[in-house]
Design goal:
Elements (H helix, E strand, L loop, with lengths): L8 H8 L26 E3 L13 E3 L15 H5 L2 H6 L6 E3 L4 H9 L11 E2 L1 E2 L2 E2 L1 E6 L1 H4 L3 H13 L4 H10 L7 E6 L6 E6 L24 E2 L4
Parallel strand pairs: 3-4
Antiparallel strand pairs: 1-2, 3-10, 5-6, 7-8, 8-9
Helix pairs in contact: 6-7
The structure holds zinc ion (ZN) (2 copies).
């Protein structure tokens, strides 16, 4: 019997409407290049067995899978982390990597790291000779905290030979949930924030000025797949 003194607040609430205990889920494997895949939306909870290992792991990967014959969804993050899904389906989870990094880094990013959904082919950014950590999708509002990432975006836009005012319009129109969207990374060595942005179609409407033709969409970056 509970002493009456204990029946206060939340204890009473639990007696009135018992809550079902939420399922305890195991800790996710460590992903050095994608430290919080739940926060970025690339991994979510699931009670279904994994399509690759058949185990009920409590988590499922929701990002892209590049492989013929691999399931589009239903792979658990453990099968990604331990390379089992990459081996079984000859799969990669991101399209390409920008810049030169050692081959083991390429393998880790393409084959053992959860990818992310982008408007065009997702590209992993690198810095200081290593792959960067993916922090998530970002819009203009989210990027306010990361001026170094905005500088990086501005530099990339300048490479598209857009006029400066159009670049600023574009940066202001970035949206976490709708295109154009930025993809935010952080260097694992020097902690500089990096970002690139993409969109589909000829041009995001908010950037189209009535007075001039819309800018061309950003070209596919110098992605390399390094033969994997
Ligand atoms: Zn699995
Ligand atoms: Zn760096």
């Amino acid at each position: 019997m509970l002493a009456p003194a204990a029946l206060t607040g939340s204890a009473i609430q639990l007696l009135i409407s018992p809550q079902s205990e939420p399922r305890r889920r195991p800790a996710l494997p460590q992903f050095p290049y994608h430290p919080n895949p739940v926060a970025t939306g690339s991994v979510t909870t699931s009670d279904a067995p994994c399509m690759c290992c058949g185990q009920e792991r409590g988590w499922v990967y929701t990002g892209p899978v590049h492989a013929a014959g691999a399931p589009d969804n239903g792979i658990c993050p453990y099968c990604i982390a331990f390379g089992k899904a990459a081996e079984r389906y000859d799969a990669t989870f991101t399209d390409g990597i920008e810049g030169d990094v050692p081959k083991d880094v390429v393998t880790a990013i393409l084959r053992r790291t959860p990818g992310f959904v982008a408007w065009q082919s997702p590209t992993w950014l690198t810095h200081c000779g290593d792959g960067a950590e993916f922090l998530g999708l970002a819009g203009a509002k989210e990027l306010e905290r990361y001026p170094d990432a905005v500088d990086d975006l501005r530099r990339r836009c300048a490479e598209w030979t857009w006029p400066p005012d159009e670049v600023e319009d574009f940066l202001g129109s970035l949206d976490e949930d709708d295109q154009p969207t930025a993809y935010l990374f952080r260097c694992r060595a020097c902690a500089t924030h990096l970002a690139y942005a993409d969109f589909t179609g000829p041009c995001p409407p908010s950037v189209t000025g009535a007075r001039r033709d819309p800018p061309h969409p950003p070209p596919r970056s110098n992605s390399v797949n390094n033969g994997l």
